[in-house]
């Protein structure tokens, strides 16, 4: 029995992708999809840089899911997957300056401009509820 590494990784990360797509977040898998979606988006856009790490599973994805239960949410919801869709992730990170690459991370953009960013170090030592509170405060401020 032989399985390619790529197939194995696709199978392993699918549940991690599903954590976000099943709550209505659209995956951007290519640099072209990112370029077509982020810079000219009108209104507010949430971009989750997904990851296979434990803090993505335990804090980031659950925190995002909780935040999206809030009355006020962004107009557009996207995700890229660091380490899996490398080119799409690199393209998305171009819009997150001046922040260095960080995964997981969460960006909130308004009319194509970054207005709020949560880096990995702000995820790994906080609970999902704290991340959700951070996001809902940002939604209240920028998504009205």
Could you describe the 3D structure shown?
This is Putative bacilliredoxin, YphP/YqiW family. InterPro entries: BrxB/BrxA. Belongs to the bacilliredoxin family. Pfam families: Disulph_isomer. By secondary structure, the chain is an alpha/beta fold. The protein has a single domain (1-143), classed as Glutaredoxin (3-Layer(aba) Sandwich). It is built from five helices and five strands. The chain has helices at residues 5-21, 31-37, 54-67, 86-93, 128-142, and strands spanning 26-27, 44-50, 76-81, 105-110, 113-118. Strands 1-3-2-4-5 form a five-stranded mixed beta sheet, sandwiched between helices. Helix 3 packs across helix 5. The protein is globular, with a radius of gyration of 15 Å. 36% of the residues are buried.
């Amino acid at each position: 029995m032989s399985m390619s590494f790529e197939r194995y990784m696709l199978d392993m990360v699918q549940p991690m992708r599903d954590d976000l797509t099943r709550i209505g977040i659209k995956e951007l898998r290519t640099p072209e999809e990112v370029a077509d979606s982020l810079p000219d988006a009108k209104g507010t856009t949430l971009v989750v840089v997904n990851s296979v790490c434990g803090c993505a599973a335990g804090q980031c994805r659950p925190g995002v899911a909780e935040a999206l239960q809030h009355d006020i949410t962004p107009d557009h919801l996207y995700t890229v997957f660091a380490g899996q869709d490398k080119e799409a992730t690199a393209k998305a990170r171009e819009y997150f300056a001046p922040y260095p690459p960080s995964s997981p991370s969460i960006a909130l953009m308004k009319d194509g401009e970054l207005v709020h960013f949560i880096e990995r170090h702000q995820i790994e030592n906080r609970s999902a509820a704290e991340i959700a509170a951070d996001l809902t405060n940002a939604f209240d401020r920028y998504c009205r």
